[in-house]
């Protein structure tokens, strides 16, 4: 009887853990930003579904791909130094114009790289959050231009 009781408790626990995992994956996929995890070898270990929209790769095909192979040479020339800093334990929050692979224009992105440490304070990889703020940036620039023109007309 005790063995059956333990089995049932274990089964219930597994089901609850599975449900939580599904919930959190759904949550990450619902957000309109790039979210990923990159390991010490600069390979993606997790990507949310926005990567499919941005880069045309199926989520399941991104695991173990090098960042360079996904974002392209031009983008990597911009983000590479920040990747290295994150893998050396530095948290990065910055905004940059970047031309990504499979995109037809330059995007102004806000991105954060947050190092992931083990208990010995060694960097295992880093978490990635990237948000396309191109439209926001265009509006800021237009407002700045309008302000300058208005000041000139005074």
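-> sequence recovered:
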């Amino acid at each position: 009887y005790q063995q059956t009781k333990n089995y049932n408790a274990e089964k219930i626990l597994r089901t609850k853990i599975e449900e939580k995992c599904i919930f959190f994956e759904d949550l990450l996929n619902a957000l309109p930003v790039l979210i990923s995890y990159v390991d010490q070898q600069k390979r993606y270990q997790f990507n949310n579904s926005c990567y499919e929209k941005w880069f045309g790769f199926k989520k399941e095909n991104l695991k173990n791909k090098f960042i360079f192979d996904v974002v392209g040479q031009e983008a990597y020339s911009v983000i590479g130094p920040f990747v290295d800093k994150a893998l050396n334990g530095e948290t990065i929050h910055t905004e940059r114009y970047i031309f990504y692979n499979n995109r037809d224009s330059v995007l102004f992105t806000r991105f954060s790289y947050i190092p992931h440490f083990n208990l010995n304070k060694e960097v295992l990889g880093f978490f990635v959050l990237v948000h396309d703020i191109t439209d926001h940036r265009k509006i800021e620039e237009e407002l700045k231009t309008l302000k300058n023109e208005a000041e000139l007309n005074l």
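Residues 72 and 85 are 19 Å apart (CA to CA).
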